[in-house]
Amino acid sequence: MRQRFPRVVLRDRETSEGFLDGYTDGDGYRSSHWSARLLVSANVPFLAELAQVVGARFTPNKQGAASRLAVADTWPSRRTFPAEHHPLELREAAWAEVREVRSRTSGDKPFTLYSFRLDPCPSFLINGHLARQPW
């Protein structure tokens, strides 16, 4: 399953910039030649949708490897940002208590999968990604 572009980050430019910063920290890097972020992913639909939002041209890597999308720091001046209304009830002043951590079997995947339960709210933002409680 591929992750789709998280439309919730289109609430405002500040949230979108925070998402781009977080994505760059995790799966990208700052260009050393010009003022831009280079985002790397094998998820072509995700990068294609993000390219539309930031007004960038995107050509997927045809050799099956990860593709790159250059997001210029001047992207807001292109006026392609489509602000969308996504209601959120943030409780930013509250601490989250971890009551229990259990490892779950992830098959042949090279990562550890953890289960979680959210209480009292069923969702929250992590670096601009809307996280929901698994059902």
UniProtKB/TrEMBL annotation:
The organism is: Streptomyces typhae
| Protein name from the UniProt record | Uncharacterized protein
